[in-house]
Design a protein that fits this description.
Length: about 270
């Protein structure tokens, strides 16, 4: 039987003077770098302009970071956003909300697809989102591993044999807790490999919007249940029947169901050739 795992990882890899490289930042960047390679492969395979992936990367980085930052303040610290809106873009950039990132990415890809519509490259909103979710799933796994390295977003106390004791998190008692970051990271890795297999097997036969729908249903259904294993992020959530992560996950899952049903209905309505 496994014993409790003592988690005493230094979130900082190394530093030179005041400049430091941290695991979270490295993993965050890796999500974009590896995702760029995957999207380049997809564009080559489907005969899309590979040069467009550079523009797509810019849209993704800006929309992800802005969406995550604005979402954090809007959902968890609205008083800070009202008091000083510039804090969204000012360091130290503490606080990123995955639900905000999801909204930001969808808006960013909508703008990107509108730009591509005038060039008639076939990169519609649903075409792009169905493929970008492959890389977003991988990026989500890396980000949760970064949270693990930071000993943040910890789980509730538990006596399961794989529980972690987060030595470097002074906010909580040094008692065994669910490694909720690891649960979400593993779930995202599973989703990444499934979506990559699904795209590789179906590609143009895939009902438009179905991969986006699968992503939303998988990620946010699990997020809803994982929240029962996690400590609340802010104090006001302690007075809610469902915490903010669960409340925001419900419309995300509903949107995913809509895209899956809509995609399959459109696929069945196409004429047989």
């Amino acid at each position: 039987m496994l014993q409790y795992i003592i988690w005493d990882v230094n979130p900082e890899i190394f530093h030179i003077g005041s400049f430091s490289i941290r695991w979270y930042g490295l993993l965050f960047a890796l999500g974009f770098l590896i995702g760029m390679q995957i999207m380049t492969h997809i564009y080559k395979t489907e005969n899309k302009p590979v040069a467009d992936t550079d523009t797509l990367l810019i849209y993704m980085v800006v929309s992800t970071v802005l969406g995550a930052r604005i979402g954090h303040f809007l959902f968890y610290e609205p008083q800070v956003l009202l008091r000083n809106p510039l804090e969204v873009i000012l360091p130290p950039y503490a606080g990123l909300a995955s639900h905000g990132a999801a909204i930001g990415i969808l808006l960013g890809l909508w703008l990107y697809s509108r730009r591509e519509a005038s060039r008639k490259t076939g990169q519609t909103f649903l075409w792009v989102t169905d493929r970008i979710v492959i890389t977003v799933a991988l990026g989500g796994a890396f980000i949760r591993l970064g949270n693990l390295m930071n000993s943040e977003i910890v789980g509730r106390p538990t006596d399961v044999p794989w529980a972690f004791i987060f030595i470097n998190n002074p906010e909580y008692e040094k008692i065994p807790r669910h490694p909720s970051q690891l649960y979400e990271a593993l779930s995202c890795f599973v989703l990444f490999f499934f979506l990559l297999w699904y795209w590789n097997r179906n590609r143009e036969r895939t009902p438009r919007g179905s991969m986006l729908g699968i992503f939303l249903i998988w990620v946010f259904s699990l997020r809803f249940f994982y929240e029962y294993l996690k400590e609340n992020q802010v104090a006001f959530e302690n007075d809610l029947f469902l915490n903010m992560g669960q409340i925001l996950s419900i419309p995300a899952v509903a949107l995913g169901v809509y895209f899956v049903i809509r995609g399959n209905q459109r696929q069945h309505s196409l004429p047989i050739r």
